[in-house]
Amino acid sequence: MRTTTLLPRYKDAVHFKDFWTKGNGKLLIDFSGAEVSFKDFEKFSPYYYHVDETGDQVVEDIYFTKNFREATKEIEQYIRNGVSPQENVPESVKKMFLQTQAIPEWLNHDLLKSGAELCMRANLDSLISLRNYCLMGGYDFAYLNKPLIATEALKKGAVKRLSETLDFWVNVTRYNALEIHKKGYEFAIKTRLIHSYARLSIRKHYKKWDIENWGEPINSWDMVATYIGFSLVFLHSLHKLGNTFSTQEEEGLFHLWKYVGYLLGIPEQLLPDNKKQATEFFYLWTSIQPPADKDSILLAHSLLNESLENPILKYKFQRRNLRYLHISCTWFLLDDEVCKRLQIPEVSNRKAFPLTKRFINKIYNKVVSRKQRIRKGNKDQMKVLTDYLSITQNSNFH
């Protein structure tokens, strides 16, 4: 691990102070009961220069020694059949799969189930939260987005990027999805190797990478921040939209993402167990991130305009209306200052849809049984995913 000394360089900056004293950061502290300070900064900061070396070595040994299709087929065999200590495979492959096949002592299957049920039960609010709070809010952290720019993610298009994120999220949040050899487990392993492949490609081809400021590409601390997005920020968004959840569901959500993080090769000690820990970890990480820059704005507008480009809805007026609803939710879920930095357009009556949604949720959660909500949420989320995959898996889409 690199020995560069990292300081909380933006702790006195206006954007950092505003976020944590009067913006969503303040709401997160109130929501979680966190006690934020910089006392643990030096414990976490070295991970800004730390990466998943095991995953990187697997990519070098498998993907860089044969064509992509052959390499993927080989990895899929290891995922689906497992790897034994005696097997004649590269040492890196053995090391990674013996780690991911080892069930950690702390894993609780009841909590995994509760976390998956919360993700399904929240139905389309889950997808609204992922898109308009987790993804869009993440674009305000300028350095976090540099790997997306370096790998030319904008050229791929927001529809494709959103489809890939949705495919991953849905498949790791179903019942028993993370059991070894199951689909969620497969998605976690493949995503881990995609991160390694991207990191090695950036190091090789992107000569402008600023390691001092941006850290290692897709470093362990940035990965923790991303998975705090899927847990803490996601939970806070559901709360803002009027959803309620039990203590068991809340613990389950963090437990589920802790295990996903473990499979992705994030050091276990960095993965938060609850919303208090997650907020305290997030506070430290945000102190090294500058606010949105021109790349952030490009990414934000690409996501906003995805609704107009996406052919799932047949008519232009439907697409324009969907864009309006997403813009309304973005203004409702994010700080006004963040929206202004990302140049989110102003729209009329922007609070109408999210406030109506919140009102309906409070009634719906009381009159419809939990079991019915889980069943319907799973069905509706799978329908959205199927629609996206039907578009993006068509080679003529681009």
Features:
398 residues; MPAB/Lcp_cat_dom; ER-bound oxygenase mpaB/mpaB'/Rubber oxygenase catalytic domain-containing protein; mainly alpha; Lcp-like
Rg, rounded, reads 21 Å
Unreliable segments of 5+ consecutive residues: none
N-to-C order of helices and strands: HHHHHHHHHHHHHHHHHHHHHH
Tell me about the largest β-sheet. Answer: none
> Whole-number average pLDDT?
95
Overall geometry comes to globular
The span between the termini is: 40 Å
SS summary, helix count: 22
Protein name: ER-bound oxygenase mpaB/mpaB'/Rubber oxygenase catalytic domain-containing protein
Domain ER-bound oxygenase mpaB/mpaB'/Rubber oxygenase catalytic: 154-354
Pfam family, one: MPAB_Lcp_cat
Organism: Chryseobacterium profundimaris
Please provide a brief summary of the model.
This protein is mainly alpha-helical. The chain has helices at 14-22, 24-32, 41-44, 53-63, 68-81, 91-101, 109-121, 124-138, 146-150, 153-156, 158-172, 183-205, 211-214, 220-240, 247-263, 275-286, 294-304, 306-309, 316-333, 336-341, 352-367, 370-392.
